[in-house]
């Protein structure tokens, strides 16, 4: 596995740009991955290559044909990466924009007077869209309250509020505030047990970099990711819709294909960088397993990433070397609890007696990049019930190391005297 192979960790880190230094700050440890993961060097090269090409898709010339082939390859790679044997992928402005578009389409096609169900743990990308379009479409919105102590929502929480007239449902795959993952397949099953034809849309933006994606196993109709959070770059989002969902009436140009969801000419370079991401997962799977099948390698990489990131968060919580972990620091409070198997590469904390922005500044002065989550329109749904105005989000990926965790713990340990 990754944690047992120092040479592999070095090889992994070598594939990412700015892995240990910021072009504006200098040397730094990057624990701000939930805000946007590091970018593969291959993605940077691919972006530059395609940015220089003047041609568009859909023309009868060699360049246009090559661009179309690049996009088709990327969509095939996405189907492999996310294990989607049917449906279609398309690009949009961002993951948030795509969630709004899918949820809007689901709501306006829903029977009047039916219901939309979603949970309070959701990022506003899906929650705002569901509440807005439920109201516009004459639907009732049903809120599933998440558990404040664990930072999760469970299938039985959905099941308790499900009725046959629920026509649209939204699910968060992983929270960017608590770091906890939800059992999408089990929640979807609970929904369909009561309302089999419900349209189910999933926000997979936070989850995508931290574990396996397996759309065929979820029993859903829509899924969105933001590639800049899974080793690609900013400027676009990717969505998948089921064949049933894709054929429903939706925003499109008059006379355009009935199942087309994209608007205008897409950035071929954005699609091409998705192929770079998938190739990276295949490479990693080949390094930590004997698998030769492409999907099997991707699955092996996903298991290794999850296992390694769990070991890193455990080191952060329980300590490493002679350094105490977060659970043993009296001045630290861990959101979601110290022992939470739902955690995916993210630990949010509060330093007693110190505003979170001050903690983030102190860490940044020591070259440790973290982030403040405030009880604003992004995070108040999680922080307000806990009575917290803010927290410090420490988010990592599989290119981080235990040595970096140790530096973080040493810096936080020194804050004990300040917080007293």
From TrEMBL:
Pfam families: Aminotran_5 (PF00266). Keywords: Lyase, Pyridoxal phosphate. One of its GO terms (molecular function) is lyase activity. Residues 29-408 form the Aminotransferase class V domain. It comes from the Bacteria. PANTHER family: CYSTEINE DESULFURASE, PYRIDOXAL PHOSPHATE (PLP)-DEPENDENT ASPARTATE AMINOTRANSFERASE SUPERFAMILY. This is Selenocysteine lyase/Cysteine desulfurase. It comes from Aliiruegeria lutimaris.
């Amino acid at each position: 596995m990754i944690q047992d192979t120092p040479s592999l960790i070095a090889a992994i880190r070598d594939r990412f740009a700015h892995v240990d230094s910021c072009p504006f700050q200098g040397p730094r440890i990057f624990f701000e991955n939930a805000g946007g993961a590091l970018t593969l060097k291959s993605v940077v090269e691919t972006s530059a290559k395609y940015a220089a090409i003047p041609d568009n898709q859909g023309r009868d010339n060699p360049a246009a044909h090559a661009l179309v082939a690049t996009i088709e390859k990327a969509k095939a790679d996405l189907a492999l990466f996310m294990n989607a044997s049917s449906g279609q992928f398309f690009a949009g402005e961002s993951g948030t924009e795509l969630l709004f578009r899918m949820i809007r389409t689901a709501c306006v096609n829903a029977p009047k007077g039916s219901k939309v169900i979603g949970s309070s743990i959701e990022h506003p990308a899906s929650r705002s869209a569901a509440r807005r379009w439920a109201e516009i479409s004459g639907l009732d919105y049903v809120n599933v309250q998440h558990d404040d102590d664990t930072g999760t929502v469970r299938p039985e929480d959905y099941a308790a509020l499900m009725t046959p007239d629920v026509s649209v449902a939204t699910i968060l795959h992983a929270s960017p505030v608590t770091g906890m993952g939800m059992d999408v397949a089990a929640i979807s099953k609970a929904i369909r047990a009561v309302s089999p034809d419900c349209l189910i849309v999933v926000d997979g933006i936070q989850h995508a970099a931290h574990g396996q994606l397996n759309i065929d196993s979820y029993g859903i109709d829509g899924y969105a990711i933001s590639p800049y959070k899974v080793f690609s770059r900013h400027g676009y989002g990717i969505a998948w819709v089921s064949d049933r969902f894709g054929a429903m009436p939706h925003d499109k140009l008059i006379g355009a294909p009935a199942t087309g969801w994209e608007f205008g000419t897409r950035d071929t370079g954005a699609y091409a960088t998705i192929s770079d991401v998938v190739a990276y997962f295949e490479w990693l799977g080949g390094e930590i397993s004997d698998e030769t099948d492409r999907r099997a390698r991707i699955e092996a990489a996903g298991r290794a990433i999850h296992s390694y990131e769990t070991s890193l968060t455990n080191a952060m919580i329980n300590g490493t070397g002679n350094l105490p972990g977060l659970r043993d620091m009296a001045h630290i409070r861990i959101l979601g609890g110290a022992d939470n198997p739902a955690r995916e590469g993210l630990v949010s904390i509060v330093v007693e007696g110190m505003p979170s922005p001050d903690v983030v500044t102190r860490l940044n002065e020591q070259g440790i990049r973290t982030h403040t989550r405030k009880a604003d329109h992004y995070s108040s749904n999680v922080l307000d019930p806990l009575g917290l105005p803010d927290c410090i989000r420490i988010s990592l990926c599989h290119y981080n190391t235990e040595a970096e965790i140790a530096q973080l713990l040493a810096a936080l340990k020194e804050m004990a005297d300040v917080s007293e």
